[in-house]
Amino acid sequence: GLIAVREAFPILAAFNVGDTVLIFIATFDVRGAALVMTGVTAILLYFVKREDWRRLLGVLMGMGLVFYSISEMKEGVGPLQQMPLVTQLVAAGANEPLLSITVGVVLGFVLQSSTVVAAIGVGLVKAGLLDMPQTLVMAYASAVGSSLFKVVLGRAFTGSARQIVQYQNIFNFLGATIFVGLFYLEKFFQVPLVMALVRHASDQPETQVAVAFLLFKFTSAAILTVADSPIAHWLEKNLPKSAEEDLSAPQYISRLLPEEASAELELIRREQLREVSQIAEFFSTLREPAQGLPLDRRLAALGQLGGEVENALRATMALSLDEQDGLELTYLQRRQTVIMELAEVVGDLVLSIGQARARPALSAIAGQTLEGMEFLLLTVAADLESSDPEARQTLLGLCSDRGPMMENWRKSYLQQDGTQSLEDRSAVLSLTGGVEKCVWLLRQLTVMDHRGER
User: At CA 303, angle to CA 301 and CA 308, rounded to 5?
Assistant: First the structure.
């Protein structure tokens, strides 16, 4: 939630250009530096506990592994030059660009990155296995392959996440279409274009590949930057923001921590109140017609929000905490655990009510349970932070132990004339057990909140 989706597009375009630095680095022998980089960051990852530093170290270690892999690949391709099949394929690719295009698409799909494919191409050129034109067309086509993978991957996302994926696909397809077209013009019509330019820039084939790939990325970035507004509007219209995003995105906390721990703790407290309100809305899925998202998607959204709250709690531990803030942090950590347990229990209870309501003998009690538990959850969500002593006592009374009452009702039902089916008995046990667990956790929340007040 730090930036809007539209504001992410220029960042993504610029990243695609900056990513080509990897190709230029691949033209040098970086094996030793890659080993040192990987080893040092791996050691630091073991000792560093701060989450933001760990993420940065993970990126650096990944880069070191990429550079090391490229170095190993460049050393390993030498023997391939002696294999007749490989030399025949290389010769065929030189005469038929479609073969290189196919190889590029496949590699892009498998490796999920046109930059990595281009880096591999640099190694193949440096080893003399491929020539510069073959490597260029393979690198261009790999962007299409990586986008094909993102098309498959994009189905797992909704809303603005799909907008990001689709923007990257547009970037890749646009650049590949333009530069493969320029390649054919230059090769078959002898028009001096990209290959002529990179040959003028350097006499080293591997550097020529790196320069061409930079031009490829820069051209796409420039066009999309100029057309930023219509593209963003089209993506927003065709891939609108999903309801789950509003539920799963934090409204108070962010990855940028306030300077004072007490301020961050207050923001976490507010976010936890949102979590409880979302749990109370689980019961709306049983209304006819059902209101809003189905239960499974609500649970998934709450799980994502809970993960962000837990990350914020861990990050706050790295701030300077006085005694009071330390106690508050401990309290909020315990409350987060209870809230996540409550979400699971209420989710199961909603399913139990739905199953019981479908049985004629239990439909009435299921409806009463739905009304009562929904009222209880909504009341707790509304009054959890209340400073009114009377409201506090009312809340504690509502969340009093329901164990004896549920046990008496359970026994009364099960000791009837014995005409109840096994399914009815199982539904009653599930229903009453869910109510007991839910009320017990709600009481823990109210009692904890009372003790956690400053």
Answer: 100
Omega before residue 133 within 30° of 0, cis: no
Instruction: Measure Cα distances from 178 to 144, 171, 173, 427 in Å.
Output: 12, 11, 9, 63
Instruction: Convert 120-146 to b/e letters by CB count within 10 Å (16 or more is b).
Output: bbbbbbbbebbebbbbbbbbbbbbbbb
Helix axes 114-126, 205-226, angle to 10 degrees: 160
Residue where the block lists tokens 């909020």: 332
Round to whole Å and give the CA distance between 350 and 348.
Answer: 5
Three-state secondary-structure class, residue 157: coil
User: What single-letter amino acid sits at 395?
Assistant: L
CA distance 309 to 220: 38
d(CA 328, CA 262): 9
State the burial class of residue 334 (Cβ atoms within 10 Å of its Cβ: 0-12, 13-18, 19+). Answer: middle
Predicted TM-score of the model (pTM):
0.64
Q: Which of 212, 48, 32 is nearest to 122 (CA)?
A: 212
Task: Using alpha carbons, select from 36, 112, 35, 40 the residue that is nearest to residue 71.
Answer: 35
Residue-by-residue pLDDT tens, the chain, 454 positions: 567 788 889 999 999 999 888 888 878 888 888 899 999 999 999 888 887 788 899 999 988 888 888 777 667 666 666 667 666 666 666 667 888 888 889 888 888 888 888 887 887 787 777 788 888 899 999 999 988 887 777 666 767 788 888 899 999 999 999 999 999 999 888 889 999 999 998 888 888 989 999 999 999 999 999 998 999 999 988 888 777 778 888 888 876 666 678 888 989 999 999 999 999 999 999 887 777 788 998 999 999 999 999 988 988 887 778 888 889 999 999 999 999 999 999 999 999 999 888 888 888 888 888 888 898 888 888 887 776 777 777 777 777 766 566 666 666 666 665 556 778 778 888 888 888 899 889 888 888 765 444 4
Write the Ramachandran bin of 418: left for phi over 0, alpha for psi from -120 to 50, otherwise beta: left
Residue type, 81: Q
- 434 in Cβ contact with 350 (< 8 Å): no
Q: How far is residue 385 CA from its own chain's centroid?
A: 31
Identify the CA nearest to 75 among candidates 118, 112, 32. Answer: 32
